Amino acid sequence: MTTELILSRVLKAPRAAIYACWTTPEHMVHWFMPKPHFIDNITIDLRPGGRFDSTMHVDGAAFPSLGCVLDAIPDRRFAFTDLMTADFQPVASPGLGFTATIDLSDHDGGTLYHVTARHRTPEDSQKHEAMGFSHGWGVVATQLEAYAGTL
Amino acid sequence: MTKYEPQLSAIFQALSDPTRRAMLAQLAMGPVGATELARPTGWALPTVLRHIAVLEAAALIDTEKIGRSRMCRLRPETLNATAGWMATQRAIWEAQTDRLQAYVETMMQDDPHDH
Predict the structure, then answer these.
(1) How many CA atoms lie within 13 A of B65 on its CB side?
(2) CA-CA 20 to 30 A from B100: which of A83, B28, B29, B72?
(3) Which one has a higher pLDDT value, B8 or B13?
(4) 3-class DSSP state of A85
(5) Which residues of chain A lie closer than 8 angstroms to B25, CB-CB?
(6) Which residues of A touch B100 (CB under 8 A)?
(7) Residues paired with residue B73 on neighbouring β-strands, in sequence order
């Protein structure tokens, strides 16, 4: 079973705007989480090894999330993971356990938005931390609902 | 969705052990008794029975006592649930990209000279 997920889409906006949405806390709060959930306390240190921390609020519960920036090439690429915290410090028990790379390139009428998300295999996952896992599934249910509403 | 959560944790925990994965691989070829399942592992029957219990608790297999033997049978539909987990990750990214698209377009309209 594959654990790599690839998503490609053309967005009607220049690369710089999309990069700003992904790397600026003031922008992220507006789209990162599906309503009524929200994200705050976002800290992004835009350099490889920089922290990518936030607090996710799901169903009234707050989940601190610590991550690490893997790559930050202005208007081109942003990559991060929850498998490490600042300065590439490995975490003992990650929530989801993934790396994500967002690549931006010019495309007719906008930007080609290309996401590669790599996950641990279920075999490697061991027992998920109750918090991390239930959080993930809580978000999922709501997002699926929102997503279904757009179809 | 939330109702699958304990089941998925149990599945991932069950799959984290190489002996149990080997047992599942053997069961994929057809139902066998616990003693037969124990043979290639070289482990004592009680140890193997414990692994069987973990697999059964995760709904990865069914067992049935037939005479003095415990027959084990794969439940493939459970592994399909883990494949559904990846589909869920995709749905998260798709939905998030929808929100990013909507937001960035609004941002461009509000402040087209800012970027």
Answers:
(1) 3
(2) A83
(3) B13
(4) strand
(5) none
(6) 11, 18, 21-22, 31, 113
(7) B62
